[in-house]
Amino acid sequence: MASTQVLFLIFFVSFLSPSPSLSSHVSLSVSPKTLTRSNRTVRIQWSGVDSPSDLDWLGIYSPPNSPDKEFIGYVFLNSSRDWQSGSGYVDLPLVDLRSNYVFRVFRWTRNEVSDRHHDHDGNPLPGTKHRLAASEEVGFGKVLGPDQIHLSITDREDEMRVMFVTVDGAESFVSYGLDMEKLDRMAKTDVRRYERKDMCDYPANATIGWRDPGFTHDGVMSNLEKGKRYYYTVGSDSGGWSAIRSFISRDNNSNETIAFLFGDMGTYVPYSTFYRTQDESKSTVKWILRDIEALGDKPAFISHIGDISYARGYAWIWDEFFNQIEPIASAVPYHVCIGNHEYDWPAQPWRPWWSLYGVYGKDGGGECGVPYSVRFQMPGNSSFPTGTGSPHTQNLYYSFDFGVVHFLYISTETNFLQGSDQYNFIKSDLESVDRNKTPFIVVQGHRPMYTTSNEVRDAPLREKMLESLEPLLVDNNVTLALWGHVHRYERFCPVKKFTCVHTNSSFTAGGAPVHVVIGMAGQDWQPIWEPRSDHPDVPIFPSRRGQCTVGESLGTRGLLPRGRS
Fold first, then answer.
1. CA distance 258 to 15
2. Distances from the Cα of 258 to the Cαs of 227, 252, 275, 483, 557, in angstroms?
3. Which residues make up the CATH 3.60.21.10 domain(s) of the chain?
4. Which of 264, 329, 262 minimizes the C-alpha distance to 522?
5. Of 163, 517, 203, nearest to 367 (Cα)?
6. 235: alpha, beta or left, given left = phi > 0 and alpha = psi -120 to 50?
7. Is 314 in contact with 60 (CB distance < 8 Å)?
8. SS3 letters for 426-461?
9. What dotted CATH number matches 147-561?
10. In the chain, at which end, N or C, are there fewer CB atoms within 10 A of the end residue's CB?
């Protein structure tokens, strides 16, 4: 027993103590030590690093007692201009992870670089054998209200849903009204959360990936007038209120539909982590915000069709993602459908024989759709059991009208074959569309039915989509089918059974939908798309009155169909 205690003591001391021979003169400081708002920047300064190396690095940790190998991210010291002097600094914006941060400096030597210890992209991860210094803790003090605020449409035209995150799940509200100086209406929010035990596989259910997600609140603003600007704030007197924000309520009598549509955006973070994140997503959010502000009092919404945050089991990436999109998602409804990186795991319940060659793998990082299902609430009540004790997967398939367009979202990750609940929903939904109210139908899903990608593993899935779903799209005169997953832009002719229905330079309504792949909002694993000069630029949405404009800006496509025929 005594030897066991001694061994533990030795391990404990070596875990907490820097290497004496390397760290006797290294100091590490951080300022400020108390933050009051997410995305506040801290400055981390170091000095006294002897014989600086371009492999010396700074680790970012939360919670503070995390083992050295379980960082949330890292930055090499050579990112500081004066690093070769042994001193320097980096500025990092921090989001509220509901636990304090600490920072640690390490020396990583070249003979310790090993391909056996690498990230998900095959790049060696920095070694933690030689810790030089550790900082004091940095925390969030009295936070000024909740964060991660985002809107979504409900099944009722006169409602708007708002969701946000708090530290403790205390009773919270949404206060709203037509006058910013007089928010005279209030709605109480429901609250829910998920736990580590709800995760289905590594790394989501391991200490390296799990972090406390906080409490997700869900409130509905009701009895809204059509096409009006409403102001709102969320929170409570005890926990603080958010800044006042605003949105334009839905108006399905409008002759105009404005939507920002894209897939596979992901998350920008100001550090390296266990896989390469999506730096380009920062520009996508920036330009969408510019366009939203230019719209004035016109209603619009955002559609993100799968591969949402690319957290892949590393929980803090969801916090980074929702803080990143908050400027746009708190101003217009933010709608999603599920992708492989939110859901897929080895034991998922729907794995037909034709998918056993790699269609559904480990892309969800063990999350099995749980964070996606809790953090978002889309219209409808679609769900699918996980086959474990985890909550059912939500937000799989649903639809709504927005102006002159009927939008239908589907799941390519769960059963869509003939006879399934999803197939029956899709069939019923398409057959019941009132084309006098919404002359255009847009279907959206993650994995494409048509693409030039030659990825072999998805071929069986595409065949089953063509077999089960294409007849529904064709028979019901779907105008446009939008897909992600392939990280480039591809537009096809109106196509049925791999044959163009219309090859002339003017669009003729009916026959087959136009298929467009739009998975280029942030993730860039695919080669850059090259324009084809021989492809005619023709409108997708015909109209006897008005016009249709399609705008592109850094990874998004905006649809503005106008008029009813």
1. 55
2. 13, 12, 34, 18, 10
3. 147-561
4. 264
5. 203
6. left
7. no
8. HHHHHHCCCCCCCCEEEEEECCCCCCCCCCHHHHHH
9. 3.60.21.10
10. N
Which helix (H) or strand (E) is 320 found in, with range? helix 316-329
CA–CA distance, 72 with 59 (Å, rounded to integer):
8
Residues in CB range of 253: below 8 A, 6 or more apart = 226
Q: Are 242 and 206 in contact (CB under 8 A)?
A: no
Beta bridge partner(s), residue 336: 304
Tell me phi and psi for residue 281, to 5 degrees: -65, -25
Q: How far apart are CA 330 and CA 563, in angstroms?
A: 28
Q: Which tokens sit at 517?
A: 């792949």
Calpha distance 468→369 (Å, rounded):
24
Cis preceding-peptide flag for 539 (omega within 30 of 0): no
Where in the sequence of the chain do the CATH 2.60.40.2840 domains occur? Answer: 18-140
- Nearest Cα residue to 564 out of 226, 255, 258: 255
Fold exhibited by the domain 18-140 = Immunoglobulin-like (2.60.40)
In angstroms, the CA 479 to CA 440 distance is 6
Q: What is the dihedral of CA 385, 373, 275, 120, to 10 degrees?
A: 0
Residue 143's CB is within 10 A of a number of other CB atoms, namely 18
Residue at 208: amino acid letter = I
CB 488 within 8 A of CB 516: no
Strand order in the sheet with 57-61: 73-76, 57-61, 102-107, 130-134
Residue in 517, 447, 506, 443 with CA at minimum distance from that of residue 477: 443
- Are 250 and 157 a contacting pair, CB within 8 Å? yes
Q: How many residues does the chain have?
A: 565
Structure tokens at 560: 């503005």
